[in-house]
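Exercise 7. Given the encoded structure of a 149-residue chain, write a plausible sequence.
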């Protein structure tokens, strides 16, 4: 009975798994044979979030340092995940880049929350509130309030 049960599970695993394995992986190659994994295209629900925001950024690194007219950039890090990064070559560019998944979208409100941080964006007013958390010893946490530009 045990052998039949194990063979039944093995049969199910082999017949069900292959279609899922091939549909969840994608890659491309160029003429040189270089193979790279492609980043998934952003889901239409996060497209509204992508872009540059300008506002007040507070860095929490052994104290609080405030930067006015700071810019952060939301780019796609997956279907329903945004990568949040500071504008390059700025004094506040030391803050940690975070990938946050969109957890709730209702009407004009977009919300994300997980161990790395939280954000709330309202698309009508284009206003964003963001707070990141330290999840590693080297992380530099920050908060941001501003508008999409």
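Solution.
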């Amino acid at each position: 009975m045990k052998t039949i049960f194990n063979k039944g599970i093995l049969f199910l695993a082999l017949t069900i798994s292959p279609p899922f394995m091939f549909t969840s992986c994608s890659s491309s190659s160029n003429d040189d044979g270089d193979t790279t994994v492609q980043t998934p295209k952003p889901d239409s629900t996060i497209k509204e979030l992508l872009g540059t925001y300008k506002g007040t950024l507070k860095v929490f690194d052994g104290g609080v340092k405030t930067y006015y007219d700071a810019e952060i950039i939301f780019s796609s890090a997956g279907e329903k995940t945004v990568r949040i990064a500071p504008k390059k070559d700025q004094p506040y560019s030391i803050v940690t880049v975070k990938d946050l998944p969109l957890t709730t979208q209702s009407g004009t409100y977009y919300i994300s929350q997980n161990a790395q941080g939280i954000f709330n964006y309202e698309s009508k007013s284009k206003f964003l509130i963001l707070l990141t958390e330290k999840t590693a010893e080297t992380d530099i946490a920050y908060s941001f309030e501003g508008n999409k530009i």
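Remark. The first strand starts at residue 27 and ends at 29. Students should compare their own answers with the one above.
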